Amino acid sequence: MDTSVAHPARRYNYWLGGKDHFAADRESGDLLAKAFPTARTAALENRGFLRRTVRFLAESGIRQFLDIGTGLPVPDNTHEIAQRIAPDSRVLYVDNDPIVMTHSRALTVGTPAGRTGYVEADLRDPASILDHPERHAVVDLNQPVALLLVAVLHFFHDDDQAAAVVRRLLDALPAGSYLVASNLTLDYAPPAQVAKHNELLASGRTDARARTRAEFARFFTGLDLVPPGIAAVSDWRPDRIDRPTPADVAIYGAVGRLR
Asked: Which residues contact 119 (CB under 8 A, 6 or more apart)?
């Protein structure tokens, strides 16, 4: 682990107002916020999307959650939302940052009726997640699972690689499972902001690749989209009227059900 290099999970924690970040994460976060002033708003709205989707799935009868790219613990983590509705919910967190796993083990303790587990693994290697002993102990792949890929797919710059990883994971899940995903987009951005994003991406000063609606929709090929379908994360079954515009959020989100 090199704390002199920014990590998305710690930068995200910084934007959310957390305390688990280093100078490199703050520098990266401030650089991106300067180029994209609504970055912190986007992070908060993306977190709200996670809360609402987990609540919807738990209320729909889903009792298993595979949360990959979970990030550092903040109030209302996946297991807290799900187990508040169904105490027997089982949640497996996966992240490739050892700091995330250390904090998760210390801070995210689930209900006695349910189960909460942690795996340090990389989404680029789905087999390392699916074959892990902790996955076998926490998530039964013979029963429906909610696969959460929230604000993580945009760290794949190659569309084919990202789609292949999603398909590999979905192929391991039974019918009745769900995919929850969100991804940065510049569909609402003015040309100058698009150019700035491309400049930062090319120079390695941002690690998130924006996708168009059509590119994001590819992850849900063959799935039944839950209404309202693909939308800005702030507009996916919102629970408040005074929310930011899709242009301010610049993140697509969707939930799809596996047939």
From this structure: 92, 93, 94, 101, 129, 132, 134, 135
